[in-house]
Amino acid sequence: MSELIVPSRKQPLADGNVLTITPESAGWTYVGFSVYKLEAGQTLKKATGDKEVCLVLLTGRGHVRTEKASFENIGQRMSVFEKIPPYSVYVPSQDSYEIEAVTTLEVAVCEAPGQGSLEARLIAPEQVGVEIRGSGNMERQIHNILPEQEPADSLLVVEVFTPNGHWSSYPPHKHDRDALPEESYLEETYYFRVEPEQGFALQRVYTDDLSLNEVLAVKNEEAVLVPKGYHPVSAPPGYEVYYLNVMAGPTRTWKFHNDPNHAWLMKPPSAR
């Protein structure tokens, strides 16, 4: 298996953890990501330390409490493929959170360096920007959970639904140079779900000089590390693909560079 793929555990740990990515395990600086599956009545409590956190309730309902705030019985979708925006909770650094599952609950914990400058807050579904991006078989649905227009210290969080037979993160783009205003350096994780779950997604991660050039067959509940390079995704016919992206870097802005070999795809069909 490629070192860029991080599989989920078949059985959760005692605290419900099924997947963990740390800056140390990924070999980078900014992004941490983990997934927990909690049974009804089970709780998870953690301190944020020097990290800010975005808790994304992937499926199920629960209570989320921080040192100063409480959000009771939040969550509505039982499958990510309902394609409705999730409930999320932003928790600043130097705080803590407790999650109590009301139903079986799957929660993603997105982490990046924090400055403790913000208050904990609920990100309700109606606050999530929904857009259709691309056209034809490049069309996909975007949920902007924590975009750069919304307050945070480092984190950018978005989820994407790629219909069967379609491509996303496409045309291929990258954000691996700290060269603003043209391009920002952002580490990125992809957490995948596939429907039906026996399917797979394909993701290519490659650099201009092809010193990194991998094509990954990614299964349901696996994550992919994108330390650098272009990183397009394909959903095979018959399989819907969902992924949750977490990005962070030295500057909280998403400025990407398209692969010049494929930038022509950004033109209207009549101009190609």
TrEMBL record:
Keyword Isomerase part of the UniProt annotation: yes
**The protein's enzyme class:** isomerase
What SUPFAM superfamilies does the entry give?
RmlC-like cupins (SSF51182)
Kindly indicate whether the keyword Isomerase belongs to this entry.
yes
Coiled-coil intervals, chain numbering: none
InterPro entries with a match to the protein in the record: Deoxy-glucuronate_isom_IolB, KduI/IolB_isomerase, RmlC-like_jellyroll, RmlC_Cupin_sf
Q: Cite the EC number.
A: 5.3.1.30
Q: Which GO terms describe its molecular function?
A: 5-deoxy-D-glucuronate isomerase activity
Gene3D superfamilies per record: Jelly Rolls
What keywords appear on the UniProt entry? Answer: Isomerase
Instruction: List the protein's name.
Output: 5-deoxy-glucuronate isomerase
**Species annotation:** Paenibacillus filicis
This protein's encoding gene: iolB
